[in-house]
Amino acid sequence: MAQAEDIVRIGLLGAGNVGAQVARTLVEERELISARVGTPVKLIGVAVRDPEAPRDWKIPGELLTTDAEALVDEADLIVELIGGYEPAGALIERALRRGAAVVTGNKALLATRGAELDAIAAETGAVLRYEASVGGAIPILRPIEESLSGDRITKVMGIVNGTTNYILDQMDTTGAAFGDALAEAQKLGYAEADPTADVEGHDAAAKAAILGTLAFHAPFTLDEVYCEGISQVTADDIEAAAASGYVIKLLAIAEKHDDGAVLRVHPTLLPRTHPLASVRGAFNAVFVVAENAGELMFYGQGAGGKPTSSAIMGDVVATARRLRASVAETPTVPAGAHLPALPIERATTQYYIDMQVADREGVIAEIAQVLADHHVSIESMRQPGSVSVEGEVESGESLGAQVQIVTHLALEKDLDATVKQLKSLDVVKSVTSVLRVEVEK
Ligand SMILES: NC(=O)c1ccc[n+]([C@@H]2O[C@H](COP(=O)([O-])OP(=O)(O)OC[C@H]3O[C@@H](n4cnc5c(N)ncnc54)[C@H](O)[C@@H]3O)[C@@H](O)[C@H]2O)c1
Ligand SMILES: N[C@@H](CCO)C(=O)O
Ligand code: NA
Questions:
Q1: What residues are paired with 253 via a beta bridge?
Q2: CB of 85 closer than 6 angstroms to any ligand 1 atom
Q3: Which domains does the chain have, with CATH numbers?
Q4: What per-residue confidence (pLDDT) applies to 281?
Q5: ipTM
Q6: What does the H/E/C string look like for 23-59?
Q7: Does residue 155 have an active-site annotation?
């Protein structure tokens, strides 16, 4: 596309939370960005759905258009910030097919059609970059793709959704109600257009698929990620966790095994001393473990218009430099690469089990035996004291007691079988919650 000393013509699709900030930077900081690229850059148009809509930054009227396709056909570099599958997917494909570069933050699309879009880009020699899609402002994809390209990554684990971290943090620290905390996260520009994607873990799962793909050099898709969101996490769970010295976080984990990889997203208990436990508000943090590098931690603002625009602009500068230099890129995921996604039953982690049990002798021994029978060993056990069951208690009936167990590392398959058998015991009235625990990084 652009030749040396040419102007790099940039087309922006979407001017919402992130897009408006990107437009502002491209207009107000045009000289700086051009100097960083080494070639003049120019924002030639901003495709929007409604030119009259109020925005966080007022875009000059002459840049606004509702004809996204025409803009795609004219620009050297397209920044896609509409989000969702369509029309974003078709517009990105259209740009790549004509060899134009694309910068996007669209994790939902990348986690479903990433390999296909990469293949189109490879075919036409177009550049496709998406640093903003994971961890907002945090430089995480480029370090994985470039800085760690001479090492073997074995695990990536982190807090990658700002909205849910904000909600859990507010519930934990201020006792805010779930709905109020979500409304605030939406107001602050952290949430997806449909916040179900955040709350049910789909956004984090898309990010897990992207992280796994780049870390393990093989394609993984959203539907290969085991996913549990935070809608089942109650204020009682958070309180019980706090009483035992834990905090609940939604973690995304991609773990390499000899014969594949387990990718999973679920609420997780972390000891308050764990580095990820202190990640507050909409901040994100990602641990990367590599054979030679050991443990690395990346931390920063994971959501919000301005922070995310920083990652978009980094990709814009890097891409515009590439257009100018016309250097071919070696793909991070080689054509034909394949690594099986393993089922959640293959995951190994620690577990927290909270139960209401009969308050009588021998109960603990009976429970311990069930765990032992399934090769699940106990790290710690608490009995926060007898608690009353709700409603009327007839005289002579036992009140029941609470038992909280944290296991050592166990296989998910064994844990499932353990919980199933515990539920069938007469002495176990109910298993109130089962949560995975990460004690180690
Ligand atoms: N907000 C964040 O913190 C954040 C962080 C990282 C990545 N992202 C991703 O960036 C993208 C944009 O996020 P956002 O928060 O800015 O979303 P947003 O909903 O605020 O903005 C999207 C904009 O696109 C517009 N739009 C919809 N259809 C259009 C069309 N056909 N043509 C032109 N414009 C159209 C909408 O009117 C809206 O203004 C999404 O893919 C999101 O997942 C967002
Ligand atoms: N909705 C996303 C935006 C950042 O990708 C989040 O809350 O993390
Ligand atoms: Na990022």
A1: 157, 264
A2: no
A3: 8-136+305-325 (3.40.50.720), 141-301 (3.30.360.10), 348-437 (3.30.70.260)
A4: 97
A5: 0.99
A6: HHHHHHCHHHHHHHHCCCEEEEEEECCCCCCCCCCCC
A7: no
